[in-house]
Each structure stands twice: as structure tokens, then as C-alpha cells.
Amino acid sequence: MTEHSALALHVPEPAVRPGGTPDFSGVRIPEAGSVGRPEVVADPSSIRDLAFSIIRVLNRKGEAVGPWAGLLGDAELLEGLRHMMTMRAFDARMLMAQRQGKTSFYMQHMGEEAVSCAFRKALRPGDMNFPTYRQAGLLIADGYPLVDMMCQIYSNEMDPLKGRQLPVLYSSRKHGFFTISGNLATQYIQAVGWAMASAIKHDTKIAVGWIGDGSTAESDFHAALVFASTYEAPVVLNIVNNQWAISTFQGMARGSSATFAARGLGFGIPSLRVDGNDYLAVYAVARWAIERARRNLGPTLIEHVTYRVGAHSTSDDPTAYRPKTESDAWPLGDPVIRLKNHLIVRGAWSEERHKQAEAEILDTVIAAQKAAESHGTLHAGGQPSVRDMFEGLYAEMPPHLRRQRQEAGV
Amino acid sequence: MPRKTMIEAIRDAMDVMMGVNQDVVVFGEDVGYFGGVFRATQGLQAKYGKTRCFDTPISELGIVGSAIGMAAYGLRPCVEVQFADYMYPAYDQIVSEAARLRYRSNGDFTCPIVVRMPTGGGISGGQTHSQSPEALFTHVSGLKTVVPSNPSDAKGLLIAAIEDPDPVIFLEPKRLYNGPFDGYPDRPVTPWSRHELGEVPDGHYAIPLGQAVVRRKGTSVTVLAYGTMVHVAMAAAAETGVDAEIIDLRTLLPLDLLAIEASVRKTGRCVIVHEATLTSGFGAELSALVQETCFYHLEAPIRRVTGFDTPYPHAQEWDYFPGPARLGRALLEIMEQ
To answer: Which of A285, A387, B68, B188 is least surrounded, with the fewest CB atoms within 10 Å of its CB?
Structure first.
């Protein structure tokens, strides 16, 4: 008989903890432009390599290179830059507002702005996103009013959601933005169901699911991939791999798998990895996947490789679990700076105009904030009514709730 | 009037609704080609096509989660969870999502889905094919919970559930599928074809959710029952000679409290019966409501006759099941108080 030594449990750990020197040398970053662009009708089994590489367009010099480049003109890129800068300014103001006690909670997007801002521009009106809490760029890039977002964050008298939801869990059917749950992963399978419905009705609209690296471990993720694969649903399934699930590094959910994108291959779903800090790459990959869905070719899985620069939320302190300088060492850079540099290389932008735009955007965001605060903040000024707490649970209020509302004296 | 089994009545309801509303879709495990393990969807795929009635992977989470997405799109999914005992993987989707879409989005998105689940025991199903989890749904804000006791109601209530703008949990007592089972497993079951409530009108009719019905008028004690226990209560009243007023709740939420109050104020006594476990069961809610609304009319403490606080056993099924003997004893005892 073979002798076996005692078993030992493997518990993964990130390479570096606070006090250590950040090291991303293990993250393989292909040259921009080096990954091929298959036809959307390509046989999924012939493009499995896309799940293990990273599609990139912007190189270190700020040039757009390779087969995924060339889809966007100056005006569209400038608009994209403005959306990302707006998102960043919005985050900064709302973070400060939370610190000032004007609301209970906030979640910022720092470093991940390109993912949602660029993706939105590849969609059409009527398509539906099933977002998580770090895709507010979908709203900003679709022109959703900043004031409405802020009123939601403040839970004030003009909050479109009547004070019923935690800050940043927006909802807007009109802007293709499904009501955010706050329970992770649940909406991935719902996106697939929405897409199935669109196909059942012979519609032309598609659905988009969003999930983080950490919550791919939930069974909802598995259910979504099974259903998407089985019914060839017209859905794009996004994984935003920002390296961190609160304090848990991405290796905990990924396990020994090569990449998150590779999870799709077992389902026969075309699976791509993209540089999530590259506006042009995100847009190009989004267009490709959306085109597949629109042509009834079925689902696509996209892993956006990015980095969560800020804390998970205002209730989190990342210095407790990762080196302070880790974000500076992140090898894919900053999405705003990269797009700015590209526009300068194109001759469509300058440092001076950028500074000016920053100031203008800040003015716009501050004006929106003032307008929102005129309707109240969480603890001061206009509030949703207590009556609103009882209403809107059912289309028609059942007798037991009517009794409770009467007891509450409203 | 045609007489149908409860399964035929349920199938008829889906058939009617799929006919009148192109947005109604029906799916679940074994539901499509085969027509469901209890045959509730037999023939629907052949009649309406396989994008209106189809099989799913074995994933209750997937079934309910995709139904929520479809409802958000504008469809009206009526899905089957093969046994209520299998619904737990879907519970998060039901509680955190279906029940709250309308509320949390302030009406921007709604969730008109029906989740059908065969429930209850009496079929030698052991702990994984016998559970009655209704209290897990009545405890959730934003759901409606329905438990029919006969074919006529089952059709009308299911049509109302499919037409309802909010999510409805539709629990089908599987022991009633073929007849009004009264709790005696060793006696032949009367088929629905020989029971007046087996009369199922053709075509479309809806029974509003939230309306109880008096199955037996009486003066001595009110029995609150639903599903299989309605028939057990009828047997217990007949055997003991106690002049019980038997109320079939039909819908647990919204609850017809007015019907309950009116009866208990008249009889002064109340026995609550359900197959589910006792502690924190729906009977606890009923008992509290009766106490709150009828305290000064009560001549005896409220009694509960229920399943015991154990998993549903296999060999001891009929010791667990709250049959007519146990209920009859409770009726006789409460009349002595």
C-alpha cells in the first residue's frame, strides 16, 4: 500500500498584505493590439484563447492600436471622457457628503469608470442592464439626471424611490437600469430571464447582466450561465474583476481557475477578457458581444480586468488588508488619464482643456448637489413621508397593511 | 357542469390564461414535453408551442430568477417548482427579489409571477416530498400566498393569481390532486367526479384572492383550515357530531380576517388546524389575530392541531399527520371547556 502523508487544507492568500510592496508581476498583461478580433459568428470553440488573454486597445504611448481599435471618433471619445470625469467628480462630492453626515452610505467607482461608461454607449435604448452597485456610469453615460441620483442618495423628498432603498441602489426602467438589489448575484439570472422574454416575444432588445469577481461564487452565477447557455439567450454577462471583494482578494472566488472568463467555456459560452481601464477596449468588446446577442447568436461572457482604487464602501477601510500604494502599482493604469492621453495624442485635447473641463464638470456637479440638497438630505430638510413606507408594496394595499398604517397614525 | 380532478382544474386554468394572454408562459422541471411529474402541464407545450411551455434545467433558483426577469420585461410567468420541498434554492429570489421589486423601485419594475408548488404530505413522500412551507411565505412582505382545497377553487384562484399584478405563491396540496382526502389513508378516496367541488366551470373565471369561504355552517366552534385540512375537518365534525363552523381560508395572505372574526364571535371557540409544524406556523398568526380581535367572545383557549415539530417522517407519516382523530379529540375537548 502507498503511504500518504496527512492532508492539509489550502487557504489562498494574496501575494502582499499591508506593509508589503505591491507586486503585480504575476498579472500577465499582453501588448495592446496583440489579441485578434474574431468575427461575431466565429465558432465559440475556436476562440477559447480570448478567455485567457486581455483585449487592449490603448498602448503606453496613448495610441489606439490593433484590430479592436478604430470604432470611435473624436466627438464620441470626448463625450466618453466627460462621462468618466463626471462620474469621478460625482463620487468625490457624494463621498464628502457622506462624511458630512448628509447620507448614511456611499460607494465610489474610482478606477472602474470606463467599464460602465463605455459599455452603456454600445447599447441601444430599450436594452436592459441588471447592474450591481458600481455601475452608475450606465446612468451617467445615458444622461440620467445627476440631481435624481443625488436625491436617491440623500433619501430626500424628491427621491425617485421614496426613501425605501439604500443609497446608490438606483432604478430607472427608462434608462435601461434595473432596480439594484444589494443582494449580490441575484440579478445575473434575472438578466438571462429578461433576455429569454425578449426572444420569446421576437423583440430586438437584449439584456446585460453584471456581477463582481467575488460574487461569481454564488450559485446564481452558475444558474445564469446554465440558462443562458441552454436557451442561447440574447444576453451579455459581465464580470467586473476589480481584484477585491470587500477585504477578500479575487483568488478566493477564482480558486485554482485560470481566469473568471474561463468559467464560461465549460458552458460553451464565448468568453473574453478585456482591459477594463481602457475605454476603447471596453467599448469594442461590448459592441462585439452586443452584436452577437442582437443577431441571436446567444450569450457572451466578458471579464473586465480592473482595479478598485477606493474603499469597497464608506463603511470600509482598505488599508487594513492591502498595501496603501497597491493602486499606484496596478499595471493597467487609470482609465481617465489613459483616455485623456489618447485624446491628446489624437490632437483632440490638451492638458489645458482638460483642466478647464474638470472645473466645468465640478461646477455642474456642485450645482446638481445644491439642487438636490434643496429637497433635503437624509437627516435634514424634505423627507419622504411615513405614508410612503406603507405604500407601493402591492398594487393594491391589503387590509392588514391598511390596519398597520392606521395604527401608525398616517 | 364538467367535473375535473384538481390537476385537471389547475391545467385548465393555465390553458385558459395561455389562451387569452400571449404573455403567459409556463415552465419548470419536466414541465414541457412530458407535462410535469403530476401532469399539471400536460398538453400545454403541444398546444402553445415550446417557447410558451418548456422544460428547464434542475435549478429552482434559475426557474424563479429567470421568471422574475421575464416579469420585469412584461411577461406573466407561471412556473412550477416540482415539490415545495425543493423551493429553498429559490427562496432568496422569492424573498429578496420577487417580493420587493415593486416596493424598492417605487413601481418602476413589478413582478407578476406565480410560483406553483405541490405541498403537504400523505403520499409516503418522506421529509423531502411532504413539507408545508406556507409560513415561510406569509412571513415575507410583498407576497401573496394561496392554498386551494378543491378543483373548483383551484382553477378560479390560479386564474386570479396569474392575473394578479404581484407575485403569488400557489401551494397545491398534492394529496388532494385526485380527491377530497379526509385523512384516512386506508379508505378509498372519493374521486372528485363524485364531489360537488369537483364541478369546474369551463372557460375563464377568477376567485378573488383574500376571500375565505364557509364550508360547513355551525354554531359551536370555528375551525380555521386550508388545503387538505378542510376535508379532514369535515370528517372530524361529522364523526364527533360537534356543530363546527369550518372556514376554508383559501388565501393566507391577504387574509380574510373579517370572515374569521364573524365566525368566532358567533361560536366563541376556535380550533386552528394545519399540516405544517407547530412552532411559528401560520396557526400562530391566526391564533394571535383571533385573540386580538375576538378576546371578549372567547369561551375557551384557542387550540392548534398541527404537524409535530419534527421533519416529516416516512414510516410514522400517519402519526405525524393531524388527522380526523386528533382534530376530533380537540373539538370534543374544547366543547368541554
So the answer is: B188
Q: What share of chain B is helix, strand, coil (3-state, %, to 5)?
A: 40, 20, 40
φ/ψ (deg, to 5) at A219: -70, -20
DSSP 8-state symbol, A177: B
Cα(A374)–Cα(B78) distance, integer angstroms: 45
Q: Which helix (H) or strand (E) holds B277?
A: strand B270-277
Residues of B annotated catalytic, as ranges: 129
Give the per-residue pLDDT at A25.
Answer: 87
Q: How far is CA B257 from CA A390, B57, B211, in A?
A: 19, 40, 9
ipTM, 2 decimals? Answer: 0.97
**Cα gap A58→A283, rounded to integer Å:** 12
> Do β-strands B303-307 and B270-277 pair in parallel, antiparallel, or remain unpaired?
parallel
Which class for A236: exposed (0-12), middle (13-18), buried (19 or more C-beta within 10 A)? Answer: buried
Concatenate the DSSP letters of all residues of B278-302 into one string: STT-HHHHHHHHHHHHHGGG-SS--
The domain made up of A44-312+321-379 has a fold known as Rossmann fold (3.40.50)
pLDDT band (50, 70, 90) for residue B52? very high
At residue A1 the predicted structure's pLDDT band, cuts being 50, 70 and 90, is: low
Q: Give the global pTM.
A: 0.97
| Positions of CATH 3.40.50.970 in chain B | 6-198
* pLDDT tens-digit series, residues B94-111: 999 999 999 999 999 999
Q: Who among A169, A193, A398 is closest to B67 (CB)? A: A193
Judged by CB atoms within 8 Å, which residues 254-283 of A form the interface with B?
none
CATH architecture of B213-336: 3-Layer(aba) Sandwich (3.40)
Domain boundaries, chain A: 44-312+321-379, 386-410
Compute the CA torsion angle A372, A377, A378, A379 (nearest 10 deg). Answer: -170
Q: Which residue has the cell 412530458?
A: B34
- The CATH homologous superfamily for domain B6-198 is Thiamin diphosphate (ThDP)-binding fold, Pyr/PP domains (3.40.50.970)
Sheet strands side by side (includes B24-28): B53-55, B24-28, B76-80, B114-119, B168-173, B144-146, B251-253
Distance CA A233, CA A268 (A): 13
Is A123 near chain B, with CB under 8 Å? no
B271-298: b (≥16 Cβ within 10 Å) or e: bbbbbbbeeebbbebbbebbeeebeeeb
Å between A326 CA and nearest CA of chain B: 35
For CATH 3.40.50.920, list the domain ranges present in chain B: 213-336
Cβ within 8 Å, pair B92-A183: yes
Q: How far apart are the first and last CA of chain A?
A: 77
